[in-house]
Specification:
It contains 9 helices and 14 strands. With 339 residues, it is of the alpha/beta class. It has a single domain, classed as Ribonuclease Z/Hydroxyacylglutathione hydrolase-like (Metallo-beta-lactamase, Chain A, 4-Layer Sandwich). The chain is globular and about 60 Å long. The structure holds zinc ion. The site of zinc ion has 4 residues, from loops.
């Protein structure tokens, strides 16, 4: 259900100390929704907590909303979820937070929990709330390696690294980040990359749908998937760069085994079986957006009538325009403007 914003845009910018882009992303808060805890909490800060989701595997859950539903200004440290996967030789961190202090906190926690520094960071996609803090992992010449797909690398560069910033369109176009570029570029093609962490392997699945290039990370010896922003829980998906038909296909793939633990990109960690409402919601958006398009309505007109039925649960909006953003993504795709 859409809900009233209790922060003015101006207050949000002041409170968050964030750019207009990110303030806009977080521009609406809603009813109370403390994300339910899934695993044992091993660390908790005002902006995020870390939950154990398997042996040597932890999920980070950012907490952008206070229990009363208002925006939590501390949350800009991380903004996105992420995680830690430990092997005997390597320790992988998932995603880069919005601010360097968020990534630095995650790196320190990885060292505390595993006894080893982060050796590799996997970037699930280019968005600023997942890449803006990558500098916080840097440990001089020691690394770690920052791994991303070729498309993600290009999009970080295009959107955030300089002259190619677009003046309008994506709400992420001008956040105040100073990106650290990936150091290891992997292919976007269908091939799955296997990484040996020492006594454990993980697989990097190149997918798309939330953006033109999304990575999901599958742990081979435990039923855990880090889904990046392909899967959200309790928060309505941000379609700003989405290719909606691919999003549905990717999510079907990730949620196929109901027993798998899914570390989402935003919101709670959950079993795949508990996230079927998310897939139902994506399909409802498709049905309504297609109807709107075929009736000749604009995305704004179509979104105005969009209601999430109570049967699908509560899906809070980071931004009051996110329904329209979803309808616009479908319009782009139905009009043949996306590949
Ligand atoms: Zn994203």
């Amino acid at each position: 259900m859409p809900s009233k914003s209790i922060f003015s845009r101006r207050n949000f910018i002041a409170a968050a100390g964030a750019s207009a882009g990110v303030a806009s992303m977080l521009g609406a808060s809603a009813r109370a929704n403390s994300f339910p805890t899934f695993g044992k909490v091993v660390e908790e800060q005002p902006f995020a907590r870390i939950e154990e989701v398997g042996p040597g595997i932890w999920g980070v859950v950012s907490t952008p909303l206070k229990p009363d539903g208002s925006f939590n200004p501390a949350a800009v440290a991380t903004l996105c979820n992420g995680g830690i996967i430990a092997g005997e030789d390597k320790v992988v961190a998932i995603d880069g937070s919005f601010r360097p202090e968020g990534a630095a906190w995650l790196a320190a926690q990885a060292l505390r929990l595993t006894g080893k520094p982060v050796t590799d960071v996997i970037v699930t996609h280019f968005h600023a709330d997942h890449t803006g803090g990558l500098a916080g992992y840097q440990n001089g010449a020691a690394g770690p390696e920052i791994i991303a797909t070729a498309t993600t690398n290009q999009l970080v560069y295009d959107r955030y690294a300089g002259a190619k910033q677009t003046p309008e369109g994506a709400q992420f176009a001008r956040p105040a980040i100073r990106p650290v570029m990936p150091t290891r570029i992997i292919t976007d093609e269908a091939s799955i990359l296997t990484m040996d962490l020492g006594g454990r392997t993980i697989r990097l699945h190149p997918l798309k749908g939330h953006t033109p290039s999304d990575l999901a990370i599958v742990v081979d010896d435990a039923p855990v998937i880090f889904a990046g922003d392909l899967v959200w829980a309790g928060l309505f998906h941000n379609y700003v760069d989405a290719i909606p038909s691919h999003l549905t296909t990717s999510v079907e793939h990730l949620l196929a085994d109901p027993k798998r633990t899914i570390v989402t990109g935003h919101g709670a960690i959950a079993n795949a079986g508990e996230l079927s409402n998310y897939l139902d919601l994506l399909r409802l958006v498709e049905e309504k957006a297609r109807g709107s398009y075929e009736a000749g309505k604009t995305p704004a007109e179509g979104a105005k009538d969009f209601i999430v039925p109570a049967s699908l649960g509560t899906w809070q909006l980071f931004n009051p325009r996110y329904y329209e953003t979803a309808f616009e993504a479908w319009r782009r795709e139905l009009a043949g403007e996306t590949s």
